Amino acid sequence: GHNQIDIENLATVIENGVKQMTTTHLSKSFLPVRRRVAVLISGSGTNLQALLDHCQRGLSAAEIVLVISNVSDVQGLQRAHKAGVNTKVIPHKLYKKREEFEDAIQKELEEENVEFVCLAGFMRILTASFVKKWNGCLLNIHPSLLPAFKGMHAQKQALEAGVAITGCSVHFVNEEVDGGAIVAQEAVQVFPNDSEDLLVERIKQAEHKAYPRALEMVARGKVKLNKDGTCIRL
After folding, report:
1. pLDDT per residue over 104-124, tens digit each?
2. Which of 40, 109, 95, 113 is closest to 70 using CA atoms?
């Protein structure tokens, strides 16, 4: 005759209790269906590392199955190799047109049955055609609290504007640069004596929290992109 008991944050509680265990020790009934994710990089891959650490912790609904870089011999590829994730180098300079470069990327994504794509320091602007193809399944992170300080040198823009708070935003990618619907944000305080380098590093630490959180919400279907370009939060 008692009311039904509601257990909140069960996955988080279990995850905290089994940090030293591998997924092979866990009952399959506790594990969510894992969505296949690719990460596109161009450099050191610090956000890639944060995503890898999160996904390999045990109870994530996301699984990174492929890392693609348009630059060879970058640290991000080494991070992926160490984590046992397949990698592919697709140099953009080998292609005369952006569409040809993206077709090569698309082929790799299809071969790995990728469901979601994360941009993590990927220094190429994607065409409208590619963005539309991955509408609602393509994420990017930007070092500001969007819609403020879009584009390049967002940290410098924040310092020049004299704001007290900035941060980072994970958003769905659309045709407008840094204009897609926001999935998650993390705030960072700006101190009076901050240099651009100091602020860049502080925001990076926030990015390493926000990006895994955003990917998890999208992978679990807690956040989706509406037809009108806004977020649906379930």
Report:
1. 999 999 999 999 999 999 999
2. 40
